[in-house]
Amino acid sequence: MKYITEEAARIMGGKLYRLKGNEVINGISIDSRTVKQGDLFFGIRGERFDGATFSKDAVERGAVCAVVPEFKKTQDVPSILVDEPVMAMGRLAKSYLTRLRAKIIGITGSVGKTTTKDILHRLLSLKYKVSKTQKSQNGFIGLPLSILNAHEDDDFLVLEYGISRPYEMDYLISIAPPDIALLTKVGKSHLEFLHTEEEVAIEKAKLFKALKMFDIAVLNKNTPFLDFFESAIPKMVRVIYYDTPKIIEMDAEKTVFEIEKETYTTRLLGKHIITNLTGAIKLAKILGVPIDDMKDEVKKLTPSPMRFEVSKIGKFTIINDAYNANPESMKALIDTAKDLNTKKEKIFVFGDMLELGPKGPMLHENIGRYLAENIPCAILYATGELGKEYIKGAYRLKTKRFFEDIEDLVEKLTEHKEGIIFVKGSRKMALERVIEKLKEHL
């Protein structure tokens, strides 16, 4: 990315402050701690910090200037003064897309977006130059940030479209209308503002409605409300379906599966993740990536951090799926554990699923019940404000316990001689702490 400050200010609807207008911008940052020489720093207000207060620090570390609201300007900090930094970044990202030749691949769904995005990026990179959404930066801030970090000679830009409120998808599409749209699965997530799965589906289907003639839609045949997405797709759009493939073998070390009579082997674990992998493979095939090259790459794939990440601690196998949680992904974890070929104890460490609104307690209880019904010999240890609801639902399990303190939970884990420990909760629960503390004890 390269702009001069006068051009960037004009695009963002801002005005220069203590700038000549010919300063060269080479990058973008929203974190003063990692800002690089030549970056444009956006002072964005977050839940805990106001980025505008770090403007001076960002400039001292090498930023060309800061983008802040006029009432937050600092006397000795060169700035572009705008109405609102997040909206200004969106305008700049929309403008920058006109410079790119890349086709935009938009991925949406309640679960599996980041895994699918990472896999698809790897597969397409076998043949093309590709940029992608970094980490899970997929909303109002993350999507523009991902666009502005793309390269002008990219062939594809793989973006996640993450929403939690009505009309957010409209805004994301206004910045980056897709050329290809891929759906993972609709489920019970972000129900705090989108109160039903149906509302979630209606919002996410807008990504497919934005497709144009001869674009591509990729749909998971097993998603709820599939008909919503099919009816949203305009005429003359090519529709590709994918499904859970035939699983030949699955254990904690590898999964062997079959797609269209071709056999693949991967270190990735979980039917839902293999389903996501199938969607990525089918799209990459349509886009011209050779099958034999994909087979070799699939063997090399490793889980994204804290997404069914497998490790060993002493005699324990750890399945770290602690990046986030909602009812759909919780059920996917339980289904995977049920299908694992092992005689070891299956120990589940569950934390709260957040952003579920008033249905939260009931949904936690349902997951406890789902675990007990599908894995009667499971061991359940729960924590968090709604952890007791898991225990309530799992009343049939012989071994189940709620812990207010993580240290006590880890101490209990050490009493087991061996087993497979599944760790999952919403991001704010930070349940990877359980794994780190367990390492200290063993």
Q: Please, what is the average pLDDT?
A: 93
Q: Which class best fits the helix and strand makeup?
A: alpha/beta
**Strand segment tally:** 22
User: In what order do the strands lie side by side in the largest sheet?
Assistant: 9-10-8-11-12-13
Name of the CATH superfamily of the largest domain? Mur-like, catalytic domain
Second CATH tier, the architecture of the largest domain: 3-Layer(aba) Sandwich
Please characterize this protein's 3D structure.
With 442 residues, the protein is α/β, with parallel strands linked by helices. It folds into three domains: 3-84, Udp-n-acetylmuramoylalanyl-d-glutamate--2,6- Diaminopimelate Ligase, Chain: A, domain 1 (3-Layer(aba) Sandwich); 100-300, UDP-N-acetylmuramoyl-L-alanine:D-glutamate ligase; 309-441, Mur ligase, C-terminal domain (Protein-Tyrosine Phosphatase, Chain A, Alpha-Beta Complex). The protein has helices spanning 5-12, 55-60, 85-97, 113-124, 142-148, 168-175, 197-204, 206-209, 226-232, 271-286, 291-300, 327-339, 360-374, 387-393, 406-413, 432-441, and strands at 3-4, 15-17, 24-25, 27-29, 39-42, 65-69, 79-82, 103-108, 130-132, 156-160, 180-183, 216-220, 238-242, 246-250, 255-259, 262-266, 309-313, 316-320, 346-350, 379-383, 399-403, 419-424. The strands form five sheets. Strands 9-10-8-11-12-13 form a six-stranded parallel beta sheet, sandwiched between helices. The relative contact order is 0.08. The mean pLDDT is 93.
